[in-house]
Amino acid sequence: MSNRQPKVPFVNLSLQHQPIQSQIAEAMGKIIQEGDFILGQALTEFETAFAAASGVKYGVGVACGTDAIALGLQACGINPGDEIIIPANTFIATAIAVLEAKAIPILVDCDPETALIDLTAAETAVTSKTKAVIPVHLYGQMVSPGQLLDFAKRHDLIIFEDAAQAHLASREGYRAGAIGKAAAFSFYPSKNLGSFGDGGMLITNDAELADKMRTLRNYGAPSKYLHTEIGSNSRLDNLQAAVLNVKLPYLEKWNRDRTDAAQHYNTLLAPLKHKGIVPIANHSSSGHIYHLYVIQITEKSSIDRNTLQDKLAQHGIQTGIHYPIPCHLQPAYQNLGNPGDFPHAETLCQQILSLPMYPGLSNTQIEQVVRAIVLSLNC
After folding, report:
1. DSSP single-letter state for residue 39
2. Residue 268 CB: number of other CB atoms within 10 A?
3. If 0-12 CB within 10 Å is exposed, 13-18 middle and 19+ buried, where does residue 227 land?
4. pTM for the full model?
């Protein structure tokens, strides 16, 4: 790597934290001073604010996004042995959460252009045991609400959104989390809205479901020492809620910064399409909030994905792969399918590369990334 070549990190959280560091310190200091660490005022305030920002009535904070799905499915009335349709190219946490709810994940393939769940393929996966579909709003782009609602209505299915990468994303007049019966979010530090550790939330318009979720997250107890459900210990703590309360008002601007960065990437990468560099398609216009900016290195490329990733690293550019192995090919989950069952997901896993993306990523840095791609293809 040349000493004149500045490093472009995959993500840089300090750019968003430094300007609001004093606000965060004050909010956390208040929690520490008051000793209000669990199920306190900061959590209630954040639950209310995030639900409202997402266009729904209720939010229930939990320890992580996986718990938001697992406990959320239980709150929705999913029973052991019920089948839940999920995409094959999601993060493994989606499948893990279904299994934790004692349900059966049924994988389906994805759309090769958007990487989102293929609802046409999902038609053939529906059986008499199918009770829900979990659309994963991948990379910050929502699954089409219209198509999703039509699919669920035809088969009388619960829609439970996995919106872990889609904070305030929108499409067709809906915000992520406002389409179905409930939705799960993650506040892992690198998310568009990230805490200083693990965290998650279920949001819903159903008051009874929200009450049951509050019970499930707190040992199955609607009141102290009275346990009416087989629940868990999964609560978003007040320190994390305080951090998220400070950051939430900035989220829309941070999302716009990501969208602007993506548009600059799109413009610069357009001439490389004939060389096999194809960004994952955006069918959501400005509603895509680009948690990740992902390209495909197709068969037309002179080099494969792994080679390109290595060459970019030599230029000081960090990249990621989301995700390199589909769920059914993971060693622990091979019972979910066989090689060749989900060809689009399997192909994408060999071709996708996530480029640097975060609020504050400069046009100069983006130009540096694309220039390094061009040099790598031509070498």
Report:
1. S
2. 17
3. middle
4. 0.96
User: Half-sphere exposure of residue 312, counting CA atoms within 13 Å on the CB side?
Assistant: 27
Residues 31 and 42 sit within 8 Å (Cβ to Cβ):
yes
Distance CA 200, CA 61 (A): 6
Burial 325-342 (b: 16+ CB within 10 A, else e): ebbbbeeebeebbeeebb
Which is nearest to 187 in space by CA: 171, 162, 204, 167?
167
Span 191-228, pLDDT tens digits: 999 999 999 999 999 999 999 999 999 999 999 999 99
Q: Is the pLDDT of residue 1 over 50?
A: no
Count the residues in the chain.
Answer: 379
pLDDT at 357: 98
Beta partners for 355?
293
Q: What are phi and psi of 161, to 5 degrees?
A: -80, 135
User: What are the helix (H) ranges across 315-362?
Assistant: 343-351
Looking up tokens 């409202």, which residue turns up?
Answer: 52
E-only strand ranges, the chain: 58-62, 83-87, 104-108, 130-133, 158-162, 170-171, 174-175, 182-186, 200-204, 277-279, 293-297, 352-355
Cβ proximity of 133 and 84 under 8 Å: yes
DSSP string, 154-187: HHT-EEEEE-TT-TT-EETTEETTSSSSEEEEE-
Cα–Cα distances in angstroms (integers) from residue 190 to residues 199, 233, 310, in the given order: 12, 24, 23
Question: CA-CA distance, 209 to 260, in Å (whole number)?
Answer: 37
Radius of gyration of the chain (CA): 21
